[in-house]
TrEMBL record:
InterPro entries: Ribosomal_bS16, Ribosomal_bS16_dom_sf. Keywords: Ribonucleoprotein, Ribosomal protein. Residues 99-112 have a biased composition (Basic and acidic residues). Residues 83-125 are annotated as: Disordered. PANTHER family: 30S RIBOSOMAL PROTEIN S16, SMALL RIBOSOMAL SUBUNIT PROTEIN BS16M. NCBIfam families: S16. Residues 113-125 have a biased composition (Low complexity). This is Small ribosomal subunit protein bS16. The keyword Phosphoprotein does not apply. GO terms for cellular component: ribosome. Belongs to the bacterial ribosomal protein bS16 family. HAMAP family: Ribosomal_bS16.
């Protein structure tokens, strides 16, 4: 059975509250789970101790059993010092979109045209 440690959403509309659960990966996100391992409240400030609560002994047990944490849970474990920090690299995130690139090229072309007559005037003097 493929196990995952993941978030199960609770709370009302626009007021999310998540349970950190160990579940079979084939079950739906908010569906059946095997064990509740903690809670996550994204509405609290980032420096609050109440924001993420985990039973680390049980989390470690499930990791030893072969459960795979999701990306968000892996970040929580890195912050807690249980897991080594993974190297993340998304070079496409910094690249501007197609329209922004076109605007930047047009702006650079316009600046080059404006600079050309000023250089000619300076050269004549």
């Amino acid at each position: 059975m493929a196990m995952k440690i993941r978030l199960a959403r609770g709370g009302s509309k626009k007021r999310p509250h998540y349970a950190i659960v160990a579940s079979d990966s084939r079950m739906p996100r908010d569906g059946r789970f095997i064990e509740k391992l903690g809670t996550y409240n994204p509405l609290l400030p980032k420096d609050s101790e109440e924001r993420v609560k985990m039973n680390m002994e049980r989390v470690q047990y499930w990791l030893d059993q072969g459960a795979q944490p999701t990306d968000r849970i892996a970040r929580f474990l890195e912050a807690a010092g249980t897991r080594e920090k993974a190297v993340r690299n998304n070079p496409n995130k910094a690249v501007p979109g197609k329209k922004a690139a076109e605007r930047a090229a047009a702006k650079a072309e316009k600046a080059a045209e404006a600079a050309a007559p000023a250089e000619e005037a300076a050269a004549e003097e």
